[in-house]
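Worked Example 4.2. Consider the chain below.
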Amino acid sequence: MIYICYGITKSASTFLYQLTEEVFRAAGRPIARLAPPFTRPGALENYFNVIDDELLARIDQDTGGADIVLKTHGPPQGRVAELIASGNVLASASIRDPREIALSMIDHGARARRWRSTPFSEFVTLTDTLNALDIQLPFFEAWAAIDRVAVIFYNEICYDTATVIANIADQLKVEVESDQVMARFQDKRLIGQFSKGKALRYTELNDDEQAIFLKRYEAIYAAWSFDTDKARSVAAEQASQALRPAGEIMQHLTYLRRRYLMWRQGRDVLRQPRRRS
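Applying the procedure from the previous section yields the following structure tokens:
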């Protein structure tokens, strides 16, 4: 079974990808890990900029039809929507309040410029993020419009993780212990791309700044409700805390921890995929 995790940038999409893989494992279903030429050497995820039905067919052939989780930030292309709607491929789509995505992009941009890295370095101000959001939000809408795609919100992934795990298990038609899956991530340093972890972060913006997003993405806010009771509860608990975004060194340490965990579990990310005989 192929499971596609689409996520808009900065929507906890990496964590959702990790959770999805762990649900497969907890259900006793080993997952395939792709190697070059499908992914770059040392990749921690089966990530693709774009996923279409031809790519899915090649992956299915090369893995011998094994269970596999794919990740993308791009739109569905080719017959992907048809395959998902028919139940031949499973998928989720993660989304976050655009105001918070913008703030997270700016954090990443500051980190990138400190370390003279190119990706995200262009994001300095809120205005800088608008073009990227203009491009990516229609991608999310395209995924969300597909029948059987599970739309999962950032606030659910981060603050109601057990429910997200149960929902993924329902998609797979398996039973797992949510606590068993969550135990893998008790150390937040194993969560890919974890940065600040602040609930309802959009409250950092003043009214005029928020109005830019509420007006520009009015249709998104009308269609989807981002705040949750659990996020509000966490935000109240965090009110007296000074949370800082993770730096580049922490991100590299997280990468190394995840690589070590894969090695310890006996899953070499550089292993060539199995092929049908």
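The chain has twelve helices and four strands. The CA atoms of residues 238 and 260 lie 31 Å apart. Compare this with Example 4.1 before moving on.
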